[in-house]
Amino acid sequence: MWVLAMIVAIVIVASWQVFRYNQQQSDAIKRATAAASQEITSRQVVVTLAGVSGNTGNTGSVSAKPAKASPQKTQPSEIRATPAQLRSWVRFQPDRSQKGKVRTKVQFQPEKVAAWMTQAAAQLKRAPEKGSRQVDATGHLVRLLKDPVSGVKIKNLAKSTSQLMKSLQDGKREVKIELRTESAPGGFDDTVVPTPPLAYQAQPTQVWVDVNLSNHTTAVYRGNQPVYGPIPMVNGHPQAPTRQGVFQVYAKVDHQIMRGIGWNGPYEEAAPWIAYFSGDYALHGAPWRHTFVWEPEKGSHGCINMAVADAKQVFDLVSIGTVVVVHQ
């Protein structure tokens, strides 16, 4: 009996030792996994956009080319991986390759990383939005109603995903991935309307400027043929209306600080490519404006505000004495 009892005791002790060893190994694996998890979740992974370009179009073409795009809508400028997301990318496996030591092998799962990158890119990209305008049968602008908004396309998602995966595997604690982009033009929905009648009967070779206060456009003509435009512009606020009539350019200034007391108080703006046609009334560039869609409450102090590129073209085409016709 005592032999049997001894065998039972040995088995019990051995079983306890095996249990204790396994428990120690399990605890060691848990500690190693917790430490590895903490290290992973403390990393910083940021995805940003590089080189987003707006759809500025060409406001000054004789044909109705895209007008200057509206300011871009608010979009996230970057996406950061949360600790929970970082943890979800990883598979932990016990590593007993070194005798007497228990470690945790970290394996990043490519499909999880790729899925997160795809989701981040989807949040950063932007679909284009069409603008709206009226054009005549020849394609010339009659009136700009709404600016287009450029979209953003992601160009290098697969390459960037591989870059992120490599950085993670290399153990980098701070990873910044820049997604290269390209602009996706918004374009226009056009409505064809009759061509507005000319407000001035010029000689066939005479250069003159048409300022249409009803359609909020400016155009340079030679005789009855458009040379530049029509282009969108912003004229005077209802409390500071642009003077109407037939005038002549009497002064041209490359650049000037315009100061005064306007309908909304004192103002001071640096304006380029100025062509004065009546007192303080002038055609000039307005770099402070992001849109030239007419909104009465955002009218000028009386001058004709144009995009800078358009103002330069008009400035170069007119001379002292050029007729300027301002009309409804």
Automatic annotation (TrEMBL):
Region (Disordered): 57-80
Keyword Ubl conjugation tagged: no
Family annotation (InterPro entries): LD-transpeptidase (IPR050979), LD_TPept_cat_dom (IPR005490), Transpep_catalytic_dom (IPR038063)
One Pfam short name: YkuD
Keywords attached to this entry: Cell shape, Cell wall biogenesis/degradation, Peptidoglycan synthesis, Transferase
Residues the record marks as active site: H284 (proton donor/acceptor), C303 (nucleophile)
One Gene Ontology cellular component: extracellular region
Keyword Transferase included in the entry's annotation: yes
Residue ranges occupied by any L,D-TPase catalytic domain in the UniProt entry: 207-327
Gene Ontology molecular functions: peptidoglycan L,D-transpeptidase activity; transferase activity
Source superkingdom: Bacteria
Gene Ontology biological process terms in this record: cell wall organization; peptidoglycan-protein cross-linking; regulation of cell shape
Pathway given in the UniProt record: Cell wall biogenesis; peptidoglycan biosynthesis
PANTHER family: L,D-TRANSPEPTIDASE (PTHR30582), L,D-TRANSPEPTIDASE YCIB-RELATED (PTHR30582:SF2)
Identification of the protein by name: ErfK/YbiS/YcfS/YnhG
Organism: Mobiluncus mulieris ATCC 35239
